Amino acid sequence: MSASEIYRRLGVRPVINAAGNFTRLGGSMPSERTLVAMAEASQHFVVIEELQRAVHARLAQVTSNEAAHVSAGAAAGLYLVTAAIVSRHCGKPIQELHWEEVHSTRVVVHAGCRCPYDWAVRQIGVDLVEAGDTDSPPEAGLQAMEAALDSSTAALLYVPAGWNAPGTPPFEQVAALARGHRVPLVVDAAAQIPPSSNLWGYTGAGAEVAVFSGGKGLRAPQSTGLVVGKEALMEWVDRLGFPHYGFGRMLKVGREEMIGLLNAVEELLAREDSDRLRWCEAQVQLIVDAFRGNDLIEVGRGFPNIAGQPLPYAAVHPRDRSIDPEWLVEALRTGDPSIAVGEIPGCSGYSDGFIVNTLALSEGEMPVVISSLERIIATQ
Fold this sequence. Notes:
The chain is α/β, with parallel strands linked by helices and 380 residues long. The chain folds into two domains: 3-26 and 272-377, Aspartate Aminotransferase, domain 1; 32-270, Type I PLP-dependent aspartate aminotransferase-like (Major domain) (Aspartate Aminotransferase, domain 2, 3-Layer(aba) Sandwich), CATH 3.40.640. Helices cover 40% and strands 16% of the residues. It contains 14 helices and twelve strands. The chain has a seven-stranded mixed sheet, with helices on both faces. Strands 9-10-12 form a three-stranded antiparallel sheet. Strands 1-11 form a two-stranded parallel sheet. Helix 4 crosses helix 10 (231-240) and helix 12 runs parallel beside helix 14. The longest helix is centred in the C-terminal third of the chain and has 18 residues, at 273-290. It is globular.
């Protein structure tokens, strides 16, 4: 049975993902080698803690970090890291702390780094302190972050995403602030692959820990995350996480998923980022050339990608007022095959156009997107 038949027999339509590595679309597509490794891992039982030690040690080695941990997704990684930071700050495991002790522990974040994903930090019960605003210059934001630090501050949180507001202080300055005040810096880098050098770049520049999604640029199982960082803090992460009883028991990671993430990381580091860049540029050029001179729509190259990744995308805008971008998006979604496209960075909705993203496309899919778009606009 083919992959598409597996879904179709359930009444679910396979989708060509021209939107990006979004959880709502399944994240990314693991390689055949990763899937084979996962299948092999499923055929044998192991002592989970023994496997964790081996996989974590190997991940730390290949990413040039002191320690690593495979979590049940990036959000679970942030959750465990926050619990580890609170535990270390208070001197005992979080499950032994009173609510007042947890809630009085502060994590400081700049307003420009606030996002729905910081629920993974907030749900621990810490006081997430928002410093600065998005209208002031970065220098003022950095000063506001510094002013928010006190003896109850357990960490600084930073999200290096492409959608950060202009007033967000640069990572390098926040890292310097953290070093100067000896406050741990946590980086939510879920979507920051590529470049692959980010796997060691954030921690090498001063972050205590960085968290990556397995189901995005790593092309690992969607349900995994990779946490890398300093050994002293990562020991707390291991101590609180699965398979131990208590706080992290609910955040299970299967042996197949651990092997899958390890294989995906090794594959990523065995190839050059420039190879992926060349492929993505070629895909964008295909659709730009296909609609060059078209009277109804205009297609251009956009860069960088939606979360700041150094990869291009194709931006589609109507030339003719009779073309409704939202209608085009819906026609692509409900067509055969179903095609998902994305919002133009900085826009909410599709009123101005949409993007055809290269992040999650496979070989041969861009021509299908082009032909589907040609067929739809031909009906106008």
